[in-house]
Amino acid sequence: MDLRKLRYFAAVARAGSFSRAAEDLRIAQPALSRRVRELEDELGKPLLVRHGRGVRLSATGAVILQRAEEIDHLVAQLRIDADDGAEAMRGSISLGVPPVAGLLMVPAVVARFAAARPDVALHVREGISSLIHEWLGEQRIDVGVVYNPLPVEGTHVVPVLRERMVLVGPPDGGDAAPLPLEIRIRDLADLPLIMPSLPHNNRRVLEQAAAQHGIRLRIRSEVDSVALTKALVGAGRGYTMLTYASVHDAVMRGELTARRLDRPPIVATLAIAMRKDRRTAPLARELSATLTSVMAELVASGGWRGARVLSASAEAPPDW
User: Fold this and answer.
1) Residues 236, 194 contacting (CB under 8 angstroms)
2) Which pLDDT score, from 0 to 100, does residue 77 have?
3) I want to staple 159 with a disulfide (CB 3.0 to 4.6 A). Which of 1, 240, 271, 300 is the partner?
4) Separation of alpha carbons 276 and 273, rounded Å
């Protein structure tokens, strides 16, 4: 079927007249009439009802007009998607990252993206996952790296890796009563916790796990800074729950301890969320591919401790 016939038919239907549509399309009216008649012959049904003042849609014509407009939109989108010219891959794009994950990946991402797209300005904003969700919803960023993504209207989410959460405590010898190396979720009820305020992702995940197992958490302090939380824990003021990557170096220096949370393990999923915006779609896809590649390389090289890259079918919690 000739796409021009569909466009001509749609133009006549919207104009309500062959003569007005011919003027809009800048073609001869007999040629326009012939194309529409050919379309009707191909479909085997009249699409327009002719009358003295012009035309109106038949019942079949109303359905075909809707489909014709959908097809025209899809064809336009195909052209945008296929356009790898200057306009499609220029300008700027904005990225939101959580603090610890940002420290791990942003240097390599910025360097790699700048080398591939020197004409594109990459803006990076740091914030907790709940803020990044808000920025995506408010269209303040184009791509976000978020933990345990929530559904946000107008975004597409791709899970990339999972990290096992650990209970972080003061250095060995600082505990009044040393804890076992592996902690059950119900053991947390007896510990003074230093956690971020809701709706921070870590707090939300831990509260959900506690509710599922019928325990009540003892939140001694609410601190939204990872650096301050680690300092307080190191000083013996309580315990917290973080990804292992965020405390690995401090654990190796003996400044903190990290214990596995088992029965059940608490796992954080890190995902890339992109706005469904045709203007930034080519750049967003390329930035997303760069992010995914850098994350996978960091995990493979041991630079991202306690993480596992997800396959398309990965559902079970990782076994570290």
Assistant:
1) no
2) 65
3) 271
4) 10
DSSP alpha helix (H) spans, the chain: 3-15, 18-25, 29-43, 59-82, 99-116, 129-137, 201-212, 226-234, 248-252, 281-301
CB 57 within 8 Å of CB 48 = yes
User: What contacts 202, CB < 8 A, 6 or more positions away?
Assistant: 147, 165, 195, 196, 241, 242, 268
Bridge-based pairing state of the strands 120-126 and 48-51: unpaired
Strands 257-262 and 155-169: antiparallel
pLDDT of residue 47: 92
Question: Angle, nearest 10°, between helix axes 281-301 and 59-82?
Answer: 50
| Distance of alpha carbon 38 from alpha carbon 32, whole angstroms | 10
Tokens of 27: 């073609």
Nearest partner of 103 among 71, 123, 119, 126, judged by Cα: 126
Q: Looking up tokens 């790296």, which residue turns up?
A: 145
DSSP symbols for 96-147: EE-HHHHHHHHHHHHHHHHHH-TTEEEEEEE--HHHHHHHHHTTS-SEEEEE
- One-letter amino acid at 147 equals Y
Q: How many CA atoms lie within 13 A of 87 on its CB side?
A: 7
CA distance 225 to 202: 12
Question: Based on C-alpha coordinates, what's the Rg of the chain?
Answer: 29
pLDDT value, residue 39: 92
Mean pLDDT for each consecutive 10-residue tract of the chain (320 residues)? 87 90 90 92 91 88 86 74 55 89 93 91 88 84 88 81 89 63 82 85 81 86 87 91 88 89 82 74 87 92 88 40
Contact 192, 218 (CB under 8 A): yes
Q: What is the pLDDT of residue 312?
A: 45
What's the Cα-to-Cα distance from 93 to each of 113, 119, 178, 209, 310, rounded to whole Å? Answer: 11, 11, 49, 36, 26
Count how many Cα atoms sit within 13 Å of the Cα of residue 26 in the half-sphere of its side chain.
0
Q: Identify which of 152, 157, 129, 162 has the alpha carbon closest to the alpha carbon of residue 273.
A: 157
